Amino acid sequence: MDGRPSPQARLQQSPASARGSSAKAEAAASRPAGGVTIFLRARSPAWRCRASPLDPPPVAGSDRRNFDDELQRIISQLRPFTSIVQWQPFNESWGAYDEPRIAALVKTLDPTRLVDINSGSNFSPDSHCGDCIDDHIYTDSINTRPPDASRVAVLGEFGGLGLAEGFTRSP
After folding, report:
1. Distance of alpha carbon 168 from alpha carbon 94, whole angstroms
2. Are 67 and 95 in contact (CB under 8 A)?
């Protein structure tokens, strides 16, 4: 080989120990049929679950620098895995900031994969960047957006409970 650790060895290292700092970024991989889904949980409270993603608090400069650093390290560590088909930095605008710059950064770090900058972008103004228009629909009352000239359209999340004719059902 070329002296670098195998992808399996790099994945077994914890992100904190691999970069030698005390900052915590946890990447957990699950293996659905046909690939790997990467979930990112950053140390900063700005990226923890919010009760209302439509009214998030501002993201501090130090949190942005930390997120940028962690994102770069995660992509660098997981890029060799061919089962990863796209990168998704944000979900439903929770902690999202400077989406055009982050999309360009991710594309620079890995030009071989799609960038879904904000899964569930139908919950916030569309930043018109990345490779995907990604909608989330939990009831059948919202239409999905079609692809545009430069982006594919995907349904990133679907399901949940909806109300139909006075009773609760699972679509």
Report:
1. 28
2. yes
